[in-house]
Amino acid sequence: MTASQKGGTIYIGVTNDLARRMPEHKTGRGSSFTSRYGVQRLVWYEEYFDIADAIQRETSLKRWPRQWKIELIEKTNPEWFELFRGIGW
What we know:
Layout: E1 2-3, E2 10-11, H1 18-26, H2 32-37, E3 41-42, H3 51-63, H4 66-76
Antiparallel strand pairs: 1-2, 1-3
C-alpha cells in the first residue's frame, strides 16, 4: 500500500518487482492515480511467492473498508513512515 501522507489517500497494487515499481510511482510514471493524488509513500507491504495469491490478496484488500486498511497499516507502521529504502529515498 502506498499513501500520500499519514491518513491520506491510499493506493493498493501488486507488482513482481517492488524495487522497480516504487521509483516509477515516485517519479509520476507508476499510474495516473498515484501521480494525480501524490500517492508515493510505501507504508505497508506483503510478499508472496505465487502471483495468484498476491492478486487474490490485493483484490480482497481493495474491498475492505478504509478504516480496516488504516488499522492494518498502523499495526506495524503507526506513523506511516516511508518503508521503501531505494536510492535517493
